[in-house]
Amino acid sequence: MEDIYERSIQGDITREYALKLVNSNPFQLFDVANQLRKDIVGDEVTFIVNRNIDITDDCMIKCGFCSFRKSIGYHMTTEEILASVKEAVDVKATEICIFSGVTPEMTVEYYCDLLSAIKSNFHIQIHGLSPVEVFHAARLSGISTVDALTDFKKAGLDTLTGASAEILVDSVRAKICPNKISTADWVKIIKEAHEIGIPTTSTIMYGTVETWEDRINHLLILRDIQLETNGFTELVPMTFLNQNNVLGAELSPSSGMDDLKIHSIARIIFGKVIPNIQASWIKLGTKLAQIALCCGANDLGGTMMEDKISIAAGSSYGEHLPREDMHRIINEIGRIPVERNTLYQKV
Ligand code: SF4
Fold first, then answer.
1. 300 C-beta neighbours (distance < 10 Å), count
2. Count of domains in the chain?
């Protein structure tokens, strides 16, 4: 156990060693990850008051794990989006999180007009888009991805989401999201964002066809990017939800043990390099999220207000956890609730 702890702190977890760890006693992993969490970020558990806004479920990418695409059949107007932002501002949310599908209308100009409209009406952080949206918007507008990111930043994008990473192994992507950008393109766009001063989250979507080796390779790619750019604010592990999608017909959801092992091994691989690891209550449920917070995680994510994407995929844990519930869930495990903003500054 001491060896694992020391190697994590020294940033010396190799692929082979990590693979050995995930095949060893899981309770030892949970213990080390919990100790690392305590020593690196302390006993505070952060959360953010935010609102998800999923602007359309139309999408030409057609990922096999996606339940959101055409689940309702809608495209919000700018007025409807502004009305949703107002509802978030009214409950003192500090962040709106904009997601959407990819359509031929979603050009750089489209997003810039939307970002500017939000910023000129409201004082709120905009966390949104992801490398796949940046890639296609840039292509549709005939400019480079770094120029698209620069335009988004000028128009009001504060932070980019690290969604569309799924598993950063092209042989896995070929099976679960063959039309999505490659690992190399995802990494390139994330590094470009960091280089021009747009921080991003990082994510892993696990539980489909990938192996533990693929998961570890993914986490090591994220660690290497962070060592180069220091632009990630956190890791958000997201378990695959298997309702209403093509892949779900053949696959069961991940086990609770695997959910906990992902949070633990991420903490051990990242050490101090990416200090914030989220336990996503909307994917895990609040009870398993509490346990993940005792196995390496230190953040409970957002209050959300809505999450059409998870609901379409079979999440049954609701879409909204108000501040008081966040406090209760964190207090119940003997930890200290702290509201944060997108950049992990205390609110
Ligand atoms: S996961 Fe995203 S990119 Fe893939 S089909 Fe669904 S909405 Fe489109």
1. 26
2. 1
Q: Is 225 helix (H, G, I), strand (E, B) or coil?
A: helix
What is the Cβ-side half-sphere exposure of residue 163, based on CA atoms within 13 angstroms?
Answer: 18
Structure tokens at 280: 């996503």
Q: Is residue 293 part of a domain?
A: yes
Distance 62 CA to ligand 1 centre (A): 6
Domain encompassing residue 23: 2-339
69 part of a folded domain: yes
Is 196 within the bounds of a domain?
yes
Cα-to-centroid distance, 290 and ligand 1 (Å): 29
DSSP state for residue 271 in the 8-state scheme = T
- C-alpha span between 84 and 123 (Å, rounded): 14
Q: Whose CA is nearest to atom 7 of ligand 1?
A: 101
Cα distance between residue 65 and residue 74, in whole Å: 20
For ligand 1, say whether the CB of 311 is within 6 Å of any of its atoms. Answer: no
Any domain includes 113: yes
CATH of the domain at 299: 3.20.20.70
Tens of pLDDT along the chain (347 residues) come to: 669 999 999 999 999 999 999 999 999 999 999 999 999 999 999 999 999 999 999 999 999 999 878 778 889 999 999 999 999 999 999 999 999 899 999 999 999 999 999 999 999 999 999 999 999 999 999 999 999 999 999 999 999 999 999 999 999 999 999 999 999 999 999 999 999 999 999 999 999 999 999 999 999 999 999 999 999 999 999 999 888 888 888 888 899 999 999 999 999 999 999 999 999 999 999 999 999 999 999 999 999 886 666 666 666 666 789 999 999 999 999 999 999 999 999 99
Does ligand 1 lie within 6 Å of residue 134's CB atom? no
Rounded distance from Cα 33 to ligand 1 centre (Å): 32
The answer to whether the pTM exceeds 0.90 is yes
* Cβ atoms of 129 and 152 closer than 8 Å: yes
Facing residues of 126 across strands?
96
Q: Is 129 in the pocket of ligand 1 (CB under 6 A)?
A: no
**Which mutation among 52, 55, 62, 134 tests ligand 1's pocket best, with the greatest number of atoms within 8 A of CB?**
62
Cβ of 85 below 6 Å from ligand 1: no
